[in-house]
Amino acid sequence: MSHIRIHSLEIYHPELSVDNSFYIDHFDRRGNDIRRLMKHMGRERRYIIDNEEENTLTMGIAAAEKVLARAGMTGADMDMIVFSTQVPETTFPANALMLHHAVGAPSHAMLLDSNANCAGMTVAVDHAARYMLTSPSVKRALVVGSDYNTLIANPEDAITFANYGDAAAAVILEQTEEETGFVDSIYFTDTVNRDKILYPPQGLASAVKGTSTSHVIQWLPFDGSVALPHTYEMVETLLTRHALTVHDIKAYCFSQLVLPNLQHFQEHFAVDPDRMIYVGDRFGYTGTSSPFIALHDALESGRVQRGDYVLFWTVGAGYQLIAMLFKY
C-alpha cells in the first residue's frame, strides 16, 4: 500500500527584517499606540519585500528551487505542481504554470493554482496527498505556498500593516511504501465572518471598473476565539480516529496569525509548550505558508525527526478550519 510522505521542505523570505519599532512609530504618529497589540499578537520582527523585483511568484520560485536542491531533484522529477496563494501575481496564466517553466517540469505534470486563503497551503497539501493516493502515476508533487501580504496591507490598520510578513514555503510530496506520511484531515466551516476580511474590498468587478474606494485589504473586527471550541473538537476527533492522544504529537504546526491561539490550545490540552511551534515573532504573519514555516523551524531545531507525528492546523478567512495529521 502506498503512502504519501513529506520528502523535503524549504522556505524563502526577503532579506529585509523589520522590528516593531518601525510600526510603533508609524502608528504613534497617527495617535494609535499599538504596543499592547504587538505583545498580544506575539510580534517582534517580520520579513518584508522592499523592492520592485520580488513578489508572490518570485518567492514561490525561490522556495521551490531551494527544496529541489535540498532533495537532490530537479523539476523534471515532478508529476504535479500546486501553487497556493491568496495574492497571486497573475490570475492567468496560473502561477503554477510559471513555476513549471522556472523549474523545468515535464510536460505530463499536472498544474493547479489553489486558494483557500490562509488555510491554503495546508489544504493544498491535503488535496495533493489524497490525489496521489489514488493516482499511482503521480510519484512526486511540488506544493508551494507564497503570499506577498504587505502588498495589500492597509497602512492605516495595525492588524494588517503591523502584523503581515512576506514569505514562501515549498514541500515535495513523494509516494512511499513505508508506513509514514499523510494520515488524515478534518474540516470545519462557518460563514459567520464572510464579510469581515475582503480583498478587493468591493470585489474584483469594482476594482477593474475603477469604482472601488480602496485598493487595500478590508479587515473588520471579529471575535477569532469563536473558532477555538471547534478546533478542540476537530483535533480530538482526528486523533481518536487513529488511536492517538494529544501527547503523541511531537509538533503542533499551527497558523501563526496570533500567539494566544497556540497558548489557549496548549493550556486546554496540557501539551508540552515546546511542542507548540511559534515563529510569528520572527516572520510576522505569512498567510498560506505559516504552518509549514513552523514545521521548517521544528525540523531545523531538531524538535521533529522522521517517524514523529505532526499536527497542522490553520484558518482561512470567512472562516474555514483545517486540521491535518502527518507522520513525518
From TrEMBL:
Pfam families: ACP_syn_III, ACP_syn_III_C. InterPro entries: ACP_syn_III_C (IPR013747), ACP_syn_III_N (IPR013751), Thiolase-like (IPR016039). Residues 239-328 form the Beta-ketoacyl-[acyl-carrier-protein] synthase III C-terminal domain. Residues 112-189 form the Beta-ketoacyl-[acyl-carrier-protein] synthase III N-terminal domain. It comes from the Bacteria. Keywords: Acyltransferase, Transferase. This is Ketoacyl-ACP synthase III.
